[in-house]
From TrEMBL, chain A:
Topology with respect to the bilayer: Multi-pass membrane protein
UniProt record similarity statement: Belongs to the PIGS family.
Localization terms from the record: Endoplasmic reticulum membrane
Biased composition (Polar residues): 236-247
GO terms for biological process, alphabetical: attachment of GPI anchor to protein; GPI anchor biosynthetic process
Transmembrane portions of the chain: 53-71
Pathway(s) the chain acts in: Glycolipid biosynthesis; glycosylphosphatidylinositol-anchor biosynthesis
Keywords (A to Z) from UniProt: Endoplasmic reticulum, Glycoprotein, GPI-anchor biosynthesis, Membrane, Transmembrane, Transmembrane helix
Source organism per UniProt: Arthrobotrys oligospora (strain ATCC 24927 / CBS 115.81 / DSM 1491) (Nematode-trapping fungus)
Name of the protein described by the UniProt record: GPI transamidase component
Lineage: Eukaryota, Fungi, Dikarya, Ascomycota, Pezizomycotina
TrEMBL record, chain B:
Top-rank taxon, per record: Eukaryota
Annotated transmembrane regions: 557-579
InterPro entries: PIG-T
Organism (species): Arthrobotrys oligospora (strain ATCC 24927 / CBS 115.81 / DSM 1491)
Cellular component annotations (GO), alphabetically ordered: GPI-anchor transamidase complex
Protein name per Swiss-Prot or TrEMBL: Subunit of the glycosylphosphatidylinositol transamidase complex-like protein
Length: 586, 610
């Protein structure tokens, strides 16, 4: 049957170009003489023509207004609406002028015209502030309330709001100097007692000194926060380039150029600081190259030397602690300490320190969701002991930026104390770790008062989270703009909204001066912004180009569009023919 | 508040407080020195046992105890922190993890070491008691436990989802002690990954959990190349709380074991020639007892000679001294390396004279040694003629499982349980965890006893069955049955193969899908005939490979094209019906193609000639 069919088909192809269906007997006869048998079809009725036009038109309408949108809607990628402009504004720092109003109380029981003095100092400070308009700090002075009347009820209030308390104490011996108390916010200012003759000059000298003291107290923090806010304002792509430029110019003109060393120091310090989180996990590890010492008194040592610091830090972050002992821990294979004959010790090279942590073998990963800080006490092998590190202080330790700290402890060769590390042995180690911890958290090394430093840490952290959250939002906005084929689920837009809401709340709290709340809000904003940025489903279909879609649906689009186009073509031809006919007949 | 700051600062600045702090330190030391500091203890032991057929079973056992208070405070000493943190984070009270490769040949080797408690099914198997308020929370914690373990052991444990998780009812019992925990808050979850290939990347983290890290002690013998070249190997980790009934204090125990069966001739050959080569003719021992044997052809005999071997031959190294933590235990007599072999054979054994023999009372077929720190240890067996056949312990039960049936739609499973004991019946719990796409017909589940058993008609006494839900959970089938003495019980059932969705097929779909081993548990019992107490024993069958109907994976594109074409055809014909004009055949306006072409050709010719 196949053979016959193909044969007959071949034959037909030979003598007729018409499709097989058309080749019947009558037609076969007619091929020879077309004109003789050709009949003109009867003229069409106008309503048939009209119906046909309607059909054609409605088919096109359906295709254009229903088919195409439907196809587009079902194959397109969902992109939730994002407040793009607002995100951009945040990232450029337009929406929040970061301010840190600081309240300074002054206690001057022995000074008669304290009010007057305050006014002068405030003037001096305000002048300094006007000098550099960008300075985020606003110091505000207030005379301390009379102790007797509201000691109890305002205690907590004062603790929260007062950045520091200045006590002016007349002192005939030493002249002008200030003493920062290490465990409170009180700063004692000593000044020579006024002689009756030169009342005004003393007052002027004192006010100048007070202003200077305050400047010294907060300078480091101010520089740090300025540094934090700087990359935000001098964003090259930002729209407010003009205004920031003018601010830059203003600063260049008025303030003396900052010493480069100071900036480098701040950059160095900032690069160490771990990302802010509301809680951290701290791991203390004893790594020993042999099986000795087998145990350590870490639990009592922590509760004695570290817990007080951690509880002081608790308004900023919480800490969980774990400890471990790892035996037979060898250094990375690339590190070979060299023997120094002079000091009779083994020294590590400076470049070795960065690869000191043998991350392939030392189990240091932690599964908690909080950032992990590692503090390692390393006991070297007796064959390379004592092991020292170059240019180290007496503590023989080093800090790994954003990661933790390492202390090398040389136990010597005496048999005693090798089995077990006692609490007193651990004391200097934990003290080193405590300084490392403060450096990692970003507490400024100055002034000496711990509460003031912690306060300043809170301010610094809130500035940091604000900057980080807004820059994350900015990155998300640029990403969404740059990749039109990326899908944006509603969770992302929700997170972005939430982040923006918390950002503005944080900004408000900052202006009010409640920094702890601002930090809290900023943290939420940062978390939400990061949740939006790292949304997993956004990345899943990054590359699914439109050409691909068209190729897949071509078998549908092609055959459907051909009759539609041909139908239009035929109608147009018919209309033209009609017109020609009419013209010729006319 | 001020006091707090004062204390916080004593180590930083204030000199006046230093004296106070020193006093405090002294006070604390004084109080502490009164109590004995409770430290973790650690034991390790290597058991060697020659098996018939030139095989050697090496069982490594590492065990450490520590007070549970320190564990709960995350103050880890010998207990590995990486694992301890995971257990705490996921509220896991007891964990059992198994990695296994190869098949334990019980016909040849006899009963499994440790009553099969340390062995798992092929691939990875894990079960745990998770503390939680309700089922949903337990499930969530189980998932995060698996994810964390997956990272720790470089295994795909994160693929243990709800479809691979079962909650056995009769097969497992907690082995730890829970005096304070309400047992209704403990949820048992069990998961298995039969497809997981166990390899060196799982051994390295396993060794890292040990205090001596494979740098001293018996763990120095563990080398990935040797371990995974073995005929059978199984690694296990068990963590459980243990409470002393006298003092009421609780410890956390972690026990890690490795059982491996080394092919002695293969290991020795590997040592002599790393590239495998056929043996020279003069080395072959020909079986001349065969009737067709002649001088020209050699029919080599297996297992006919006792090959001489030593630890350093088989493992490529010696034990480099004892692990210091395993030596220090003052109380019990320690044994680090033990060898079970027939007495005659033990007499010929030689050791490096550096280890002290440990006493073994009344056991002539056992010899043990205590390792010393930093002193290497090795032992060797010379060639023995005539060969001494090694000890073999008859297993309680032989089990094997296979697929029956044919075709892409249905299949069957047949499990054969054989009780070799001539006198005592064995009560077993048979547990199967089937993937959801293998749907058993429970009405076809039958047990047949051979030879025909006169007593009770049905050997199955209890049956627990949880049917599968598509894509949500697998089938769990647990049956308690009795295998009569010296007879065989054959369990059979039929199943239907489901058709999966396109994306549910793995990349190598035509390889088939692994079905986890069946777990056969024999609860502890007293033997009727001689009153011997048999501890709980478990046996695992091999895993099965199920082939499902696999589609052509260009299917979706084809489907789109087919449907598009049909839609386009339908639309085209309807549209044409509506738009075209129908006329009689002789009224068709014919396009004279022939004439047109002729005209074109003529014009072309004309153009050329011009």
């Amino acid at each position: 049957m196949d053979k016959d069919g193909s044969q007959s088909k071949l034959l037909q192809d030979d003598d007729s170009i018409l499709p097989a269906g058309f080749v019947d007997k009558g037609a076969d006869d007619s091929t020879g003489d077309l004109a003789a048998t050709f009949k003109q079809p009867p003229p069409e009725r106008p309503e048939t023509v009209r119906t046909r036009l309607w059909v054609l038109l409605s088919a096109w309408m359906i295709a254009i207004f229903l088919g195409l949108p439907l196809w587009h809607a079902t194959t397109t990628i969902y992109r939730a609406p994002l407040p793009m402009q607002e995100m951009q504004n945040w990232s450029e720092g337009k929406l929040c002028k970061t301010e840190f109003p600081l309240l300074v109380e002054v206690e001057a029981p022995s000074l008669p015209d304290a009010e007057n003095l305050l006014k002068t100092v405030q003037h001096a400070l305000d002048d300094a502030n006007d000098f550099a308009a960008h300075k985020p700090h606003h110091l505000r002075l207030r005379l301390a309330a009379k102790k007797a009347e509201s000691e109890e009820d305002s205690k907590s209030d004062r603790d929260e709001n007062v950045a520091c308390l200045l006590r002016l104490i007349p002192d005939s011996q030493n002249g002008y100097n200030h003493i920062v108390q290490s465990s409170s916010r009180i700063v004692d200012i000593h000044y020579p007692p006024p002689s009756s003759s030169s009342q005004s000059s003393v007052s002027a000298g004192l006010s100048k000194f007070v202003a200077e003291t305050l400047e010294v107290l907060f300078r480091q923090e101010q520089e740090l926060i300025e540094h934090l806010l700087l990359p935000q304002t001098s964003n090259p792509g930002s729209l407010n380039a003009i205004s920031s430029q003018s601010a830059d110019e203003g600063r260049d003109k008025k303030t003396p150029p900052k010493p480069r060393a100071a900036t480098a120091d701040i950059t160095r310090r900032m690069s160490r600081v771990v990302k802010y989180s509301s809680s951290y996990h701290i791991t203390f590890s004893l790594f020993t190259a042999t099986s000795l010492p087998a145990s350590w008194d870490i639990e009592s040592a922590i509760s004695q030397y570290l817990t007080p610091l951690l509880s002081a830090l608790s308004p900023i972050s919480n800490f969980t602690i774990s400890t471990q002992v790892q035996y037979y821990a060898s250094m990375s294979s690339g590190i070979t300490p060299s023997y120094d004959g002079q000091s009779q010790s083994w020294t590590l090279k400076k470049e070795d320190l960065s690869s000191f942590i043998n991350s392939a073998e030392w189990p240091l990963a932690s599964i908690s969701n909080d950032p992990n800080l590692n503090f390692i006490l390393y006991i070297p092998h007796p064959s390379v002991s004592p092991l020292t590190i170059p240019s180290a202080s007496h503590s023989n330790s080093f800090l790994l930026p954003q990661w933790g700290g390492v202390t090398i402890l040389n136990l010597g060769h005496s048999a005693s104390g090798l089995e077990h590390l006692s609490n007193p042995t651990l004391k200097p180690v934990l003290e080193t770790f405590a300084t490392h911890l403060l450096a990692l958290l970003g507490a400024p090394p100055h002034p000496a008062s711990l509460p003031i430093r912690l306060d300043s840490l809170i301010r610094q952290r809130s500035a940091e989270v604000l900057v980080s959250a807004s820059s994350t939002l900015g990155s998300l906005q640029r990403l969404v703009n740059a990749l039109p084929s990326i899908s944006i689920p509603t969770t992302v837009s929700d997170s972005v909204q939430d982040s923006i809401r918390h950002l503005s709340l944080a900004c408000e709290e900052l202006r009010k001066g409640s920094f702890v709340k601002a930090l809290e809000m900023g943290r939420v904003a940062q978390e939400e912004a990061e949740k939006a940025f790292f949304e997993r489903t956004m990345v899943a279909q990054v590359y699914f180009p439109d050409e691909h879609k068209l190729a897949v649906y071509l078998p549908l689009l092609g055959p459907v569009s051909v009759p539609l186009v041909l139908g239009v073509f035929r109608e147009v031809k018919r209309v033209i023919a009609e017109k020609k006919r009419l013209r010729s007949s006319a | 508040m001020t006091l707090l700051f004062a204390r916080s600062h004593q180590w930083l600045i204030s000199p006046s407080l230093k004296i106070f702090s020193r006093l405090l330190t002294l006070l604390i030391i004084l109080t502490l020195s009164g109590n004995v500091v409770v430290a973790d203890t650690y034991k390790e032991k290597l058991d060697l046992q020659p098996l018939s057929g030139q095989f050697l079973l090496a069982s490594f056992n590492f065990q450490s105890h520590g007070p549970i208070e320190a564990f709960n405070k995350q103050m880890f000493q010998l207990f590995p922190r990486s694992l301890g943190q995971i257990l705490q984070y996921t509220h896991t009270r007891e964990l059992h993890l198994r990695f296994a490769l190869g098949r334990w040949d019980s016909e040849l080797w006899g009963a499994q070491p440790g009553d099969g408690q340390n062995a798992g099914g092929t691939g990875v198997e894990t079960w745990a008691w998770v503390e939680a308020d309700n089922d949903v929370e337990a499930e969530a914690r189980w998932t995060s436990l698996n994810n964390a373990l997956s990272g720790l052991f470089c295994a795909s444990l994160n693929f243990i989802d709800s479809t691979r998780t079962i909650r056995p009812v009769m097969s497992f019992n907690p082995t730890g002690d829970y005096p304070t925990t309400n047992t209704s808050r403990l949820f048992l979850l069990h998961g298995s990954l039969p497809k997981e290939p166990v390899c060196t990347e799982n051994l390295t983290p396993f060794l890292k959990l040990l205090p001596c890290k494979g740098k001293s002690g018996i763990s120095t013998l563990l080398d990935g190349h040797k371990l995974f070249d073995a005929s059978f190997q199984s690694m296990s980790i068990d963590v459980r709380p243990i409470c002393s009934p006298h003092t009421g204090t609780c410890d956390i125990e972690i026990q890690q074991t490795i059982d491996m069966v080394l092919d002695i001739s293969r290991s020795l050959q590997r040592k002599d020639s790393p590239v495998p080569r056929p043996r020279d003719q003069h080395e072959l021992i020909c079986d001349t007892s065969k009737p067709y044997a002649s001088n020209e052809y050699c029919y080599p005999m297996d297992n006919s000679i006792d090959l001489p071997w030593s630890l350093s031959d088989l493992f490529g190294r010696t034990i480099s001294g004892g692990c210091p933590f395993a030596i220090k235990i003052p109380t019990e007599e320690t044994q680090h390396v033990c060898i079970h072999a027939p007495e005659n054979k033990l007499k010929t054994m030689e050791t490096l004279e550096l280890a002290a023999p440990a006493p073994t009372e009344g056991q002539p077929d056992l010899k043990c040694y205590v390792l010393r720190e930093n002193l290497p240890f090795d032992l060797s067996f010379p060639k023995q003629q005539p060969p001494i056949s090694p000890l073999r312990q008859e297993p309680l039960l032989y089990a094997e499982r296979s697929f029956t049936g044919h075709g892409q739609e249905h299949g069957g499973v047949k499990t054969v349980l054989r009780n070799p004991n001539p006198n005592d019946p064995v009560e077993v719990v048979y547990l199967e965890s089937l993937p959801w796409f293998m749907k058993p017909y429970l009405h076809t589940f039958k047990a047949q006893v051979l030879p025909a058993f006169d007593g009770e008609a049905d050997v199955i006494s209890e049956l627990y069955y949880r049917p599968a839900l598509d894509r949500k959970r697998g089938t769990q089938l647990e049956a308690k049955l009795v295998v009569p003495p010296n007879s065989v019980v054959i369990l059979t059932y039929d199943f239907e193969k489901a058709v999966l969705r396109y994306t549910e097929y793995p990349p190598d779909a035509n390889r088939g899908f692994d079905v986890a081993s069946a777990i056969i548990t024999i609860p502890p019992h007293r033997q009727g005939s001689d009153g011997k107490i048999i501890p709980a024993t478990s046996i695992r069958t091999t895993s099965l490979l199920l082939s499902l109907p696999t589609p052509d994976f260009s299917m979706p594109y084809n489907v789109i094209i087919f449907t598009s074409t049909i839609m386009a055809l339908a639309f085209g014909s309807i549209f044409n019906l509506l738009v075209r004009r129908f006329v009689a055949v002789d009224e068709v306006q014919r396009v004279d193609l022939k004439g047109k072409i002729r005209g074109l050709l003529g014009r072309l010719k004309k153009g050329k000639t011009e």
